[in-house]
Design goal:
- By secondary structure, the protein is an all-alpha fold.
- The protein is built from nine helices and two strands, in the order H-H-H-H-H-H-H-H-H-E-E.
- It has a two-stranded antiparallel ribbon with strand order 1-2.
Length: about 220
């Protein structure tokens, strides 16, 4: 018993790199379909997803589920995977909506910035990326258990676990997903806003290359 726990606890050097690799892949996948990019966008995406998913995941594993050892892959990897999968969707939608609005309303934002002389007051009223990024998660939470049966709960029931226990786990997971998605979207918006605006309070220009993908002009 002791040797098994000791062996599992030593597996952190395998579990943590795997979790880090999952996070990096999620951060890059969040930008796969973005039409507008800017310098440092990948870093912003990875940082926002990494910070939110790991913070919420650690809280869920250590304070709520209380697994031991703390890096038990049976719990840590699946839970982080579910959190990452939903967080990257919210971050992707948030960044896409924000860059779209800042670009399409470039003239109005620049005029607002010139009049108000601050980045936050000039651009924040035209940005709804945070709300857009939370739509999928909130829609899923509104119908979970009534219309849709999440995979984790369904799997536990099919495996013979008590439905009440499966529901409890699923409720915990849903709250962790909502918290991580909210933090990730807010972090992505906060990081994207100053990066998408020049030091002189003007919006980065975008140009369309031969592939149709818009990139920031030098």
């Amino acid at each position: 018993m002791c040797s098994a726990g000791s062996s599992a606890s030593r597996g952190w050097y395998v579990v943590l790199p795997l979790m880090a690799l999952m996070t990096v892949i999620a951060g890059l996948a969040a930008l796969d379909r973005e039409r507008r990019t800017y310098a440092g966008q990948r870093i912003d995406s990875i940082v926002s997803i990494w910070a939110s998913a790991w913070l919420v995941g650690a809280f869920g594993l250590f304070a709520v589920i209380r697994i031991h050892p703390r890096y038990e892959p049976q719990y840590a990897i699946p839970i982080l995977g579910m959190i990452l999968g939903n967080t990257l969707t919210g971050v992707s939608l948030g960044i896409e909506r924000m860059t779209e609005e800042l670009t399409s309303g470039r003239g109005a934002v620049e005029m607002s910035l010139a009049l108000r002389d601050t980045l936050e007051s000039g651009a924040a009223d035209r940005v709804s990326g945070g709300a857009a990024g939370m739509i999928p998660t909130l829609n899923q939470m509104a119908v979970v258990g009534l219309v849709s049966l999440p995979g984790m709960m369904t799997g536990q029931v099919l495996a013979g676990q008590s439905p009440l226990l499966a529901v409890r786990y699923q409720i915990v997971i849903m709250f962790l997903i909502v918290a991580a998605s909210a933090l990730g979207v807010v972090g992505a918006v906060v990081l994207t806003l100053p990066a998408a605006v020049l030091a002189g309070s003007s919006i980065h220009g975008v140009e369309t290359g031969g592939t149709g993908r818009e990139k920031r002009s030098a």
